[in-house]
Amino acid sequence: MIRQAQAVQKLAPISWKDTNVLGGLWGRRQQINHFVTIPSQYKRFEERGSFEALKRNWKAGDPNAPHPFWDSDFGKWIEAAAFSLAKYPDPELEKLVDSVIDEIAENQQSDGYFNTYFDLIEPDKKWTNLYYMHELYCAGHLAEGAVAYYLATGKRKFLDVMCRYMDHIDARFGSEPGKIHGYCGHQEIELALVKLYRATGEERYLKLSKYFIDERGKQPYFFELESLQRGVDTEKTANQQRHLKYYLKEHGPYAEYQSHLPVREQEAPVGHAVRAMYMYSAMADLAADTQDKTLLDASEKLWDRLTQRQMYITGGIGPSSDGERFTFDYDLPNEYTYNETCASIGLVMWAHRMLQFNADRKYADVMEQTLYNTVLSGVSVNGDEYSYANYLAVYPDRFKYASTLIIDKMMPGRHKWFNVACCPPNVARLIASIGQYMYSTSEDGIYVHLYNDSETTVDVKGNRVTLTQQTNYPWEGHIGLTIMPETAAEFTVAVRYPGWCSHAEVKVNGNKVDAPIVNGYFMLNRNWAQGDVVELLLDMPIQLVESHPSVRTNSGKVALQRGPLVYCMEETDNARDLSDLSLVDETDIKVQYEADLLDGVVTLELKGQRRETSSWEGQLYRPVQTQKTDVLVKAIPYFLWANRDPGEMLIWINHNCSCGSH
Prior knowledge:
single chain; 662 residues; Glycosyltransferase; 36% helix; globular; Glycoside hydrolase family 127 protein
């Protein structure tokens, strides 16, 4: 393969197989994920008829007609189960996964093709509507599941099935004459092909991924040619003009699917947020595996634009429900927003990939910010209800007037399932694989990115080193690391100094050290012996965070943050009309751990004010005369909203004081 300008990764992530999450917040979430979330999702598949379709038992006229996206849900669910089985060996779950794989293998076509929807609904229209029908997207998620299951169990059956499918796709797509010169409307297969290449060593898969990325956005537009071939004139068909071709007219045709320009020429995130995140993740993968610096340069430009102008404080992205998309710089509404869980999961994936190139904490900070806020918000404390959209302010009454189509995804709380259920298995696979985001290795040591009780053993300069982490993070800022090299040796332990923290100390064996900071990491280089202990002490004040002045919906408001956690107010703690609450000039903020609340949580209690409402009967407006009354404002971590009684929720609160951090 021709090498481009060098895009060399400084770090190599430590696999989920080599990191054991021992406890803490993420350990608890993994436990619930394994014993509640993954089994309950299987039941949801059964209830909606997915398995009957998978078995090819569905026929025209039956209820629960197969959905074009169902295969992708199976792929993510298998991937979640695979990651979870590595931590929790479970013969019953493994047997269940094997039964699903058997059905996929049994119904794979002789030429390698597999798609439940097209086999049952439109068998004569395969590969004819790529912009919408998600065939390649579904294939990609199945391939990711196959790679994970092979790595977790050593079983090759599903991997071999998906290799045959990818061989089928490789024979039909590419620049050669007679092949389809196109790509999927929903990016995903690009990053899946890289994973398959890494698992099998088959370079054709890497080349095919690169083809899909390189071809995207070239003119003549593939989606235009495909539409004409299907008999759809995009200049005369009103819906195609609006939704397909000119949905984001200011960016150019097909911008909704990041196909308006070649990927290296795209300078700002536009269009569907999940599609964008999966594509950017694949661009980073290809930059690493083909050493193509042009892809890395484009990714860095897109990263800066997103994180500096288009990302919520929670790590949510994609504010518009109309197209599940980005809008314009600083457009970050709170109540009328979208922030799909899948989009934030994609952001975590992209951040993790970008982090490996230069070990810069700006990527790890966003990864952590998104994980602890929007990603964890995507699943309930009990593990069997989910958020599709993630609001920053909720007023439940407005949903009473939403259409059935909209309210399926955009509801004021979490729900058992959705008509399009991409988010539930997606959050399950991320929680199950959280260990892979915690550590990396470099040529001379180990990098620690995320903090949670965990253990990993890796090779450092030919020396087996076990690192064990103990902490009550994110509730407390003390992190302990025990270093156990097989042989005493000199190497580096790099520990992230989070961007939210204004003061931190590092100790080694009880002694404070003045370690250099490089790209936001304390660089601890010394001769390490068995049992050496590193302590990281992070100050965790309550911070009052303000928005850029151009974020119009947050003018005069602040958000509460402690450590990586953004806090919110709920009606159940603070009564109705949360938007009338304001914080006052008061430094007496109570931080309390409540073991019996929401599976154990640190809450905040602050002094605030609100107007009384008893004198407003019969009046909508009047000259200013209402006196404000003092109240106590209680806040909980945002990721825990909507786990109790339904009601209002608010992150950004009116700010009438001059205080900053306490």
